[in-house]
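Input chain follows. Return structure tokens only.
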Amino acid sequence: MLQNLTSLCTRTIFLVVLFLSVKGIAANKPLQVVTELSPPYQTLLQNEVSGSATKIVKNLLSASNLTATFSMYPWARAYNKAISEPNTLIYSIAKSAERNELFHWLLPVADYKFGLVSLSERTDLDIPDLKELSNFVLAVQRNDIAHHWALEHGLEEGKQLIICSDIGCSWQLLLNKKVDFIVESPELIECMLEQFKLPTTLAKYVIAIPELEISGYLAANINIETSILEKLKLAIKKQSL
């Protein structure tokens, strides 16, 4: 009887220790920050994620006494990682009704005035009203705010709508005349053309999309560790004083 009781206690202690160890490993998972290429806000210089929005995020982490790894991915992959991996931050992400409950929204890091962009030589493109967009072909990035906007306005994937993994793909389609328009913010046009080592006058901003005049945020996975979230929020509060 005593031997059985001792064996039971030993197994119980083992299971408790194992549970606490696994919980500790999960809790100590490193903090990661994911983003996409979007110069000048998010750039890649000598294999290091840089840019004006990146600087804001890095300054916040420093003020929070936190360290993190920064990685640049196509938008759809960055977004999926931010949703599925707990200790993950993402920027610059637009706030929407569909996304509101999926993240902790920390602070804006960039402002955008997205609109339609075409090649400057395309004088044949006449679009005085966005209602006529169904007569043209548009490239957008999968799961980004422009993708959802286009679907809401009746554009069909594979017809008027070509889906790309990242902004570089959309620009390539535009430059190769495979699509009529892409969605971009005016201050990003020159920077993207410089990335391709092309004249900065090669593309032009055609018409604004009022619904896509937005702020890009730094956001955290909804299941981020409470201690990390509290440090970030405290640093933001101190910065706003």
